[in-house]
Specification:
By secondary structure, the chain is an alpha+beta fold. The chain contains 7 helices and 5 strands; from the N terminus they run ββββαβαααααα.
Length: 235
């Protein structure tokens, strides 16, 4: 007797058995099971044929050595398909980046009327680092990561980046270089997490992956320069 079994990841199965008496069809799902047969091949041919289709035939399965059973499994989902259907990992980065850009614009607007000493620098830092760079890196990580970034990693990235920006701005305004150092370390920690999140299983064009890594490495390399300048300004 030849047997063909089709199943899906949920465990539902369809079994077609062809023997001397005819064809048996069994459907199973969970604890329920139903079997129909024996059916003649001609009966199934007529049932499956469309209007005007007289050429369709039911072909027996190819013989297999020592075994007449064949199992066909449905292909698994891509690693990120289910996650992408309901959630984008870069939403928090984009929302916070938009907030930084808005506050940076407000600071720039009041810098001249209020005579803020570091107002122009603070506005530029908020827009470029807190806003543009955060959004760009968050979107790139989401697009290039082969698997969905864990919630713990995302939370750590968001907290370290935004707290680091606040520490750098606060330390500069208060002339507290140690607070600036803490902010720089938090920003470096964020970028290390982002490099690890987009690892060997990265997807997307090679040029995009290397551009993402180059931006992270260049930013990391520039942070010590900013820390040294902060200490020099503090005397």
């Amino acid at each position: 007797m030849d047997t063909i079994e089709l199943s899906d990841p949920d465990g539902d199965a369809l079994t077609v058995m062809r023997g001397a008496e005819g064809i048996w069809i069994t459907c199973a799902g969970g604890e329920a099971e139903a079997t129909v047969g024996p059916l003649a091949a001609a009966t199934l041919r007529d049932a499956l044929a469309g209007p005007g289709d007289h050429e369709r035939r039911i072909r027996p399965p190819r013989p297999r050595p020592r075994c007449g059973r064949m199992v066909v499994m449905a292909p698994p989902l891509e690693p990120r398909t289910a996650a992408d259907a309901w959630r984008r990992d870069d939403l928090a980065f984009r929302a916070l980046a938009g907030l930084w850009i808005i506050t940076g614009g407000l600071v720039a607007a009041v810098t001249a009327p209020l005579g803020l000493e570091h107002g122009s620098w603070s506005a530029a830092f908020q827009v470029l680092v807190g806003g543009v760079l955060q959004a760009g890196l968050g979107i790139a990580q989401h697009a290039l990561a082969g698997r969905r970034t864990t919630c713990g990693t995302l939370l750590a990235e968001i907290l370290t980046w935004n707290l680091g920006c606040l520490a750098v701005i606060g330390g500069t305004l208060l002339t507290a270089p140690l607070l600036v150092d803490l902010g720089g370390l938090l920003l470096v920690a964020t970028m290390v997490l982002m490099i690890r999140a987009v690892g060997r299983g990265a997807r997307g064009p090679v040029w995009a992956l290397w551009t993402y890594r180059a931006v992270l490495l260049l930013t990391i390399a520039s942070i010590p320069i900013g820390l040294v300048l902060a200490h020099l300004r503090a005397g």
